[in-house]
Amino acid sequence: MIITEILGNTHEADGAALVEGRHLEKVVLPSADLVKRIQRLTTDHNNEVGLRLPASSPDLKDGDILALEDSGEHGNAIVVSVLPTDVLVIAASSIVEMAFVAHSLGNRHLQAQFFDTDSEYQAAVMVVQYDHTVEDFLKHHKVAYSRQERVMPVPFRHAEHTH
What is the 3-state secondary structure (H, E, C) of 44-81? Predict the structure, then answer.
């Protein structure tokens, strides 16, 4: 089977309705594979499927529905399940400290994601992929952080760099 479109997402009402009553067959992916448009995938039932998404498609996300079996509403659905990513959750004590950290890490061309108090973190935080040099930097500058395993809503991409 070649998958050429994302049918919905189980974390949204319309997507949840699409898979209701179906058995969820999962394709478990690390975050780095979410940006790949063409790849061969193996489900947790050991079935192989091909993924060939158009260039205009968004990156894959946890809960994306890739296929629905045609045997009525009680068939299988193939759904993306994202592995947690090792991250540093940085909770600076002030806007000045956060600006210092963001600027310093930006010079390393490290991608960051920002969350507000209404997020699952329940605080204004910056999240970056784990890197021991970043952890050393945060310790050295006494910036509050924690190391966590998280399923990120958006995959980290390699930061391209030119001057």
Answer: CCCCEEEEECCCCCCCCCCCEEEEECCCHHHCEEEEEE
| Cβ atoms of 141 and 72 closer than 8 Å | no
pLDDT for res 161: 47
Tokens of 54: 């158009």
Q: What is the dihedral of CA 13, 16, 18, 21, to 10 degrees?
A: -140
Residue 72, pLDDT score: 59
Gap between the Cα atoms of 80 and 9, Å rounded:
9
Which distant-in-sequence residues (6+ apart) come within 8 Å of 160 by Cβ?
A: none
Model confidence pTM above 0.85:
no
pLDDT higher at 162 or 30: 30
Token pair 């699409």: residue: 18
* CB 90, CB 145: distance < 8 Å: yes
Could you give the CA distance from residue 94 to residue 96 in angstroms, rounded to a whole number? 5
